[in-house]
Amino acid sequence: MSWGFLRDLLSGVNKYSTGIGRIWIAIVFIFRLLVYVVAAENVWKYEHDEFECNTKQPGCENVCFDHFFPVSHIRLWALQLIIVSTPSLLVVFHVAYRESREKRHNQKLYSSPGKMDGGLLCAYLVSLVLKAGFEIVFLVLFYKLYNGFRVPRLVKCDMRPCPNAVDCYISKPTEKMIFLYFLVATSGVCIVLNVSELSYLIFKYSIKCYMKTFSEKQQ
C-alpha cells in the first residue's frame, strides 16, 4: 500500500503542533513508518510459508498458525499506524472549516485560521487524547492476542484436525521479537509524548486564562 496519504496528513498537522508534537511526528515518520516499510515488513513477509509443524496431516499447519497468529503482527502494526495518525484529521478539518467559513462570509473572522485557540485548541486536545488512547488499546491488544510481548521458537498445538499434540516452529523468532520490542518501545514513547503535550497545553492555557482574569480584575 501507499503511505503517501499518511505522510501528507502528518506533514499538514506539523505546522500547528508544539515542539513536543513535532517530536512525536518525527518518531512516527522515522522510527515507525520507515522501519515498517524498509525492514519490518520483510521479516514477516513469508511467515505463513515458513511456519512448520512436525506432521503432514492436511489442514493441521493452517489451523495451528491461525490459532497462534489470529492477526499478523505486521498487519496489526500497520493498522495501529493508520488509526493512531487519523485523529490528526480533527485539526486539519477544523482549520479547513475556519478557512471555508471566512471565505463564505468574505471577511476576516479569525486573526489566523491556524492559531491555537478556541475550537482549534479543543480539537487538538481531543486528538491527543485519542492518539494516546489508541496506542494503549493496541498495546493491550498485542499483549492479549499473543500472550505477552514475545515470539516463542516452539509452540505445541493440539487443535483439530491435528492427530495429537504436535510441535510447530516459528521462523526467525529472535528477529521478530526484537521488532516487537521496538514496536512496544516506540508506542510507549509516543504515549509519553502525547500525555506530555496534553499536560503542557492545558497548563499553558490555564495560566493564560488565569493571567487574563487577574489582569481584568486589576483594571
TrEMBL record:
Main location: other
Molecular function via GO: gap junction channel activity
Keyword vocabulary terms for this entry: Cell junction, Cell membrane, Gap junction, Membrane, Transmembrane, Transmembrane helix
UniProt domain Connexin N-terminal: residue ranges: 42-75
Topology class, membrane: Multi-pass membrane protein
Membrane-spanning segments: 21-39, 77-97, 118-143, 178-203
Domain Connexin cysteine-rich: 134-201
GO biological process, one term: cell-cell signaling
GO cellular component: connexin complex
Cellular localisation: Cell junction, Gap junction; Cell membrane
Function text: One gap junction consists of a cluster of closely packed pairs of transmembrane channels, the connexons, through which materials of low MW diffuse from one cell to a neighboring cell.
Oligomer status and interactors: A connexon is composed of a hexamer of connexins.
PANTHER family the UniProt entry points to: CONNEXIN, GAP JUNCTION BETA-7 PROTEIN
Recorded family membership: Belongs to the connexin family.
UniProt-recorded name of the protein: Gap junction protein
Gene name of the encoded protein: Gjb7
